[in-house]
Specification:
single chain, alpha/beta, Rossmann fold, 12 strands, globular
């Protein structure tokens, strides 16, 4: 059996499935866990690959450690989405973190990942992690000056998730951050989602004093070339904190990768320039 994610009308990614481990329709989406020959266990939501055992470490390390090594003293972290647990796992590596609040709309994603993807979801059992099952956009709107770092681990901007790519959402994030806070959001593929990247960058840049785009390579995501947009009130992500944290357990992130990720190819740099 083969599974194909149609990433664009004319292109997709196909992998051989050894077996379907789980499939159900939750109140919010179709959830499936596939055991594949090339990528190992794969979490699929509404037909779109969210994470795989094969390459999840790239995405989760770059989403978490770039902002956490930009802020010199992060203590309270908010994760919007992240129901597989991988982002929380990476945040927990930083010993100075005191509290992680994770807001996931679909309880079944957390429960299913806890069973089938324990390498990621073991973070949910940690005493520093508190999980709330509610809409992330609505949750942020209720908070003010609460967090040092906010990580938006959102799915593709389809349906309800589209709100997590809006100007109103970024403004609410600004209000929820402390005076020296910062946030990062995954912002899709520079090859396939150029309009989205330009739109998000312009909105974040309008709200935050410092806005930067950075890149990583995630093979199972559309085009394999992935972007993240960072908005900061005070700290420049290209200047590593003097107290940066690095672990030999990291498989992708290094201080050198941190700095190199902001060196953009011209066609990507153009997406963050005036006029896109």
């Amino acid at each position: 059996m083969w599974f194909t994610e149609r990433q664009k009308p004319g292109v997709g990614i196909t992998c051989k499935v050894l077996r379907t481990l789980h499939r159900e329709i939750s109140p919010f989406q179709e959830i499936a866990v596939l055991d594949t020959e090339q990528f190992g266990r794969v979490l699929v939501l509404d037909g779109m690959i969210q994470t795989t055992i094969f390459d999840e470490f790239v995405y989760h390390e770059m989403l978490a450690h770039v902002p956490l090594n930009t802020h010199p003293a992060p203590r309270d972290v908010l994760i919007i989405g992240g129901g597989d647990g991988g982002t929380a796992r990476e945040v927990l590596r930083h010993p100075q973190i005191e509290k992680i609040t994770l807001v996931e709309i679909d309880r079944r994603v957390v429960e299913i990942c806890s069973h089938f993807l324990p390498e990621l979801a073991s973070s949910f059992d940690h005493p520093k992690v508190k999980v709330h099952f509610e809409d992330g956009a609505e949750y942020v709107q209720k908070k003010e000056v609460s967090y040092d770092v906010i990580l938006v681990d959102a799915p593709e901007p389809v349906g309800r998730a589209a709100r997590l790519f809006s100007s109103e959402f970024y403004q609410a994030i600004f209000q929820a951050l402390r005076p020296d806070g910062l946030f990062v959001a995954q912002t899709e593929s520079p090859f396939f989602n150029q309009d989205l990247i330009t739109s998000v960058y312009q909105e974040v840049n309008r709200i935050f004093p410092i806005t930067k785009l950075y890149l990583a390579v995630v093979p199972t995501y559309p085009s394999g070339f992935w972007s993240f947009t960072l908005g900061s009130k005070r700290f420049d992500p290209e200047m590593l904190s003097e107290d940066y944290y690095f672990s030999q357990a990291f498989r992708y992130y290094t201080p050198e990768i941190h700095q190199a990720a902001f060196k953009l190819p011209p066609f990507v740099h153009a997406l963050s320039s005036p006029g896109g």
